[in-house]
Protein backbone atom coordinates (compact mmCIF):
# COMPACT_ATOMS: atom_id res chain seq x y z
CA UNK A 1 0.00 0.00 0.00
CA UNK A 2 1.21 3.49 -0.89
CA UNK A 3 -0.22 6.65 0.63
CA UNK A 4 0.56 9.98 -0.97
CA UNK A 5 1.03 13.19 0.95
CA UNK A 6 0.37 16.32 -1.07
CA UNK A 7 3.79 17.97 -0.88
CA UNK A 8 3.30 21.51 -2.09
CA UNK A 9 3.31 23.32 1.27
CA UNK A 10 2.49 22.61 4.91
CA UNK A 11 2.94 19.73 7.35
CA UNK A 12 4.19 17.15 4.87
CA UNK A 13 7.10 15.48 6.69
CA UNK A 14 5.08 14.99 9.87
CA UNK A 15 2.48 12.91 8.00
CA UNK A 16 5.23 10.98 6.20
CA UNK A 17 6.89 10.18 9.53
CA UNK A 18 3.62 8.87 10.99
CA UNK A 19 2.96 6.72 7.91
CA UNK A 20 6.50 5.31 8.12
CA UNK A 21 5.95 4.43 11.81
CA UNK A 22 2.96 2.37 10.62
CA UNK A 23 5.11 0.65 7.96
CA UNK A 24 3.18 2.33 5.16
CA UNK A 25 5.05 3.51 2.10
CA UNK A 26 4.63 7.29 1.89
CA UNK A 27 5.00 9.10 -1.42
CA UNK A 28 5.37 12.86 -1.81
CA UNK A 29 2.82 14.03 -4.37
CA UNK A 30 4.15 17.01 -6.33
CA UNK A 31 3.16 16.26 -9.92
CA UNK A 32 0.53 14.41 -11.95
CA UNK A 33 2.65 11.26 -12.37
CA UNK A 34 2.79 10.87 -8.58
CA UNK A 35 -1.00 10.44 -8.51
CA UNK A 36 -0.65 7.21 -10.49
CA UNK A 37 1.44 5.61 -7.71
CA UNK A 38 -0.90 6.00 -4.73
CA UNK A 39 -3.75 4.13 -3.05
CA UNK A 40 -4.82 7.08 -0.87
CA UNK A 41 -3.78 10.68 -0.23
CA UNK A 42 -3.39 13.05 2.71
CA UNK A 43 -3.84 16.79 2.17
CA UNK A 44 -1.86 18.32 5.04
CA UNK A 45 -2.34 21.42 7.10
CA UNK A 46 -0.66 24.60 5.94
CA UNK A 47 -2.07 27.63 4.17
CA UNK A 48 -5.14 26.68 2.11
CA UNK A 49 -4.90 29.67 -0.24
CA UNK A 50 -1.26 28.89 -1.02
CA UNK A 51 -1.85 25.15 -1.44
CA UNK A 52 -4.86 25.86 -3.69
CA UNK A 53 -2.77 28.15 -5.89
CA UNK A 54 0.06 25.60 -6.06
CA UNK A 55 -2.44 22.82 -6.96
CA UNK A 56 -3.49 24.94 -9.94
CA UNK A 57 0.08 25.91 -10.88
CA UNK A 58 1.13 22.24 -10.88
CA UNK A 59 -1.99 21.26 -12.91
CA UNK A 60 -2.95 18.89 -10.10
CA UNK A 61 -6.35 20.34 -9.17
CA UNK A 62 -8.50 18.71 -11.87
CA UNK A 63 -6.84 15.25 -11.91
CA UNK A 64 -6.82 15.07 -8.09
CA UNK A 65 -10.48 16.09 -7.95
CA UNK A 66 -11.36 13.38 -10.51
CA UNK A 67 -9.50 10.72 -8.49
CA UNK A 68 -11.23 11.72 -5.26
CA UNK A 69 -14.62 11.71 -6.99
CA UNK A 70 -13.87 8.23 -8.33
CA UNK A 71 -13.16 6.91 -4.83
CA UNK A 72 -9.52 7.63 -3.89
CA UNK A 73 -9.38 7.54 -0.06
CA UNK A 74 -8.56 11.10 0.97
CA UNK A 75 -7.84 12.76 4.31
CA UNK A 76 -7.62 16.52 4.73
CA UNK A 77 -6.20 17.99 7.93
CA UNK A 78 -6.91 21.67 8.71
CA UNK A 79 -6.05 23.42 5.39
CA UNK A 80 -6.74 20.08 3.68
CA UNK A 81 -10.29 20.24 5.04
CA UNK A 82 -10.71 23.70 3.50
CA UNK A 83 -9.40 22.45 0.13
CA UNK A 84 -11.95 19.61 0.10
CA UNK A 85 -15.00 21.68 1.16
CA UNK A 86 -17.71 22.58 -1.35
CA UNK A 87 -18.18 25.89 0.44
CA UNK A 88 -15.95 28.21 2.49
CA UNK A 89 -17.98 30.52 4.71
CA UNK A 90 -15.51 33.40 4.92
CA UNK A 91 -13.72 33.14 1.56
CA UNK A 92 -14.89 33.46 -2.04
CA UNK A 93 -12.27 31.01 -3.33
CA UNK A 94 -13.06 27.33 -3.87
CA UNK A 95 -10.62 24.51 -4.51
CA UNK A 96 -11.44 20.79 -4.91
CA UNK A 97 -15.11 21.11 -3.85
CA UNK A 98 -15.64 17.37 -3.32
CA UNK A 99 -17.09 17.15 0.21
CA UNK A 100 -20.56 18.40 1.08
CA UNK A 101 -19.45 20.67 3.91
CA UNK A 102 -19.26 24.39 4.56
CA UNK A 103 -16.17 25.39 6.55
CA UNK A 104 -15.14 28.53 8.36
CA UNK A 105 -11.43 29.39 8.02
CA UNK A 106 -9.48 30.35 11.17
CA UNK A 107 -12.71 29.73 13.06
CA UNK A 108 -11.12 29.21 16.48
CA UNK A 109 -9.02 32.38 16.12
CA UNK A 110 -5.55 33.39 15.02
CA UNK A 111 -2.19 31.72 15.68
CA UNK A 112 -2.12 32.94 19.30
CA UNK A 113 -5.49 31.24 19.89
CA UNK A 114 -4.09 27.81 19.01
CA UNK A 115 -4.85 25.14 21.60
CA UNK A 116 -4.68 21.45 22.50
CA UNK A 117 -7.47 19.28 23.83
CA UNK A 118 -7.45 15.70 25.08
CA UNK A 119 -10.62 13.90 24.00
CA UNK A 120 -11.97 10.46 23.24
CA UNK A 121 -13.08 10.03 19.62
CA UNK A 122 -15.00 6.71 19.85
CA UNK A 123 -14.97 5.96 16.13
CA UNK A 124 -11.17 6.24 16.09
CA UNK A 125 -10.06 5.02 19.55
CA UNK A 126 -11.43 4.26 23.00
CA UNK A 127 -8.37 5.98 24.47
CA UNK A 128 -7.93 9.74 24.89
CA UNK A 129 -6.30 11.43 21.89
CA UNK A 130 -4.48 14.75 21.85
CA UNK A 131 -6.11 17.15 19.38
CA UNK A 132 -3.94 20.09 18.25
CA UNK A 133 -5.73 23.11 16.78
CA UNK A 134 -3.66 25.77 14.95
CA UNK A 135 -5.63 28.58 13.28
CA UNK A 136 -8.15 25.81 12.81
CA UNK A 137 -11.29 25.78 10.70
CA UNK A 138 -14.45 24.01 11.70
CA UNK A 139 -17.42 22.69 9.76
CA UNK A 140 -20.35 25.10 10.06
CA UNK A 141 -22.72 23.00 7.90
CA UNK A 142 -22.65 19.35 6.85
CA UNK A 143 -24.72 17.70 4.11
CA UNK A 144 -26.99 14.75 4.83
CA UNK A 145 -24.41 12.20 3.63
CA UNK A 146 -21.68 13.56 5.91
CA UNK A 147 -21.09 11.58 9.12
CA UNK A 148 -19.94 13.71 12.03
CA UNK A 149 -17.10 11.96 13.84
CA UNK A 150 -16.27 14.54 16.52
CA UNK A 151 -17.19 17.94 17.92
CA UNK A 152 -15.29 20.34 20.18
CA UNK A 153 -17.14 23.23 21.84
CA UNK A 154 -20.18 22.01 19.88
CA UNK A 155 -18.31 22.68 16.60
CA UNK A 156 -17.77 19.89 14.04
CA UNK A 157 -14.02 19.17 13.88
CA UNK A 158 -13.94 15.71 12.27
CA UNK A 159 -16.23 14.20 9.65
CA UNK A 160 -16.40 11.61 6.91
CA UNK A 161 -18.25 11.34 3.61
CA UNK A 162 -17.77 8.17 1.57
CA UNK A 163 -14.01 8.02 0.83
CA UNK A 164 -13.18 11.41 2.38
CA UNK A 165 -12.08 12.09 5.97
CA UNK A 166 -11.46 15.60 7.32
CA UNK A 167 -10.10 16.90 10.62
CA UNK A 168 -9.76 20.49 11.84
CA UNK A 169 -6.87 19.44 14.03
CA UNK A 170 -3.39 18.04 13.40
CA UNK A 171 -2.87 14.40 14.48
CA UNK A 172 0.52 14.50 12.73
CA UNK A 173 1.78 16.97 15.37
CA UNK A 174 1.34 14.46 18.19
CA UNK A 175 2.87 11.04 18.92
CA UNK A 176 -0.57 9.43 18.61
CA UNK A 177 -1.06 7.23 15.53
CA UNK A 178 -4.78 6.50 15.97
CA UNK A 179 -6.07 8.84 13.24
CA UNK A 180 -3.40 7.65 10.80
CA UNK A 181 -4.38 4.05 11.59
CA UNK A 182 -8.03 4.97 11.00
CA UNK A 183 -7.17 6.42 7.60
CA UNK A 184 -5.04 3.38 6.66
CA UNK A 185 -8.11 1.20 7.32
CA UNK A 186 -10.06 3.43 4.90
CA UNK A 187 -7.33 2.90 2.27
CA UNK A 188 -7.41 -0.88 2.81
TrEMBL record:
Q: What is its EC number?
A: 4.3.3.6, 3.5.1.2
Q: Cross-referenced InterPro entries, in alphabetical order?
A: Class_I_gatase-like (IPR029062), PdxT/SNO (IPR002161), PdxT/SNO_CS (IPR021196)
Q: Which GO biological process entries does UniProt record here?
A: L-glutamine catabolic process; pyridoxal phosphate biosynthetic process; pyridoxine metabolic process
State whether keyword Hydrolase applies: yes
Gene Ontology MF term list: glutaminase activity; glycosyltransferase activity; pyridoxal 5'-phosphate synthase (glutamine hydrolysing) activity
Residues bound to L-glutamine are: 46-48, 105, 134-135
Q: Which domain of life is it from?
A: Bacteria
- The active site consists of 78 (nucleophile), 170 (charge relay system), 172 (charge relay system)
What SUPFAM superfamilies does this protein map onto?
A: Class I glutamine amidotransferase-like
Q: Which Pfam families match?
A: SNO
Q: Which reaction does it catalyse?
A: L-glutamine + H2O = L-glutamate + NH4(+); aldehydo-D-ribose 5-phosphate + D-glyceraldehyde 3-phosphate + L-glutamine = pyridoxal 5'-phosphate + L-glutamate + phosphate + 3 H2O + H(+)
Biological pathway: Cofactor biosynthesis; pyridoxal 5'-phosphate biosynthesis
Keyword check for Hydrolase: yes
Query: Sorted alphabetically, which keywords does the UniProt record give?
Result: Glutamine amidotransferase, Glycosyltransferase, Hydrolase, Lyase, Pyridoxal phosphate, Transferase
Q: Which GO terms describe its cellular component?
A: cytosol; glutaminase complex
- Tell me which Gene3D superfamilies the record gives: 3.40.50.880
Family, according to the entry, reads as follows: Belongs to the glutaminase PdxT/SNO family.
Q: What does this protein do?
A: Catalyzes the hydrolysis of glutamine to glutamate and ammonia as part of the biosynthesis of pyridoxal 5'-phosphate. The resulting ammonia molecule is channeled to the active site of PdxS.
- State how it assembles: In the presence of PdxS, forms a dodecamer of heterodimers. Only shows activity in the heterodimer.
Name of the protein in its database record: Pyridoxal 5'-phosphate synthase subunit PdxT
- Quick one: which gene encodes this? pdxT
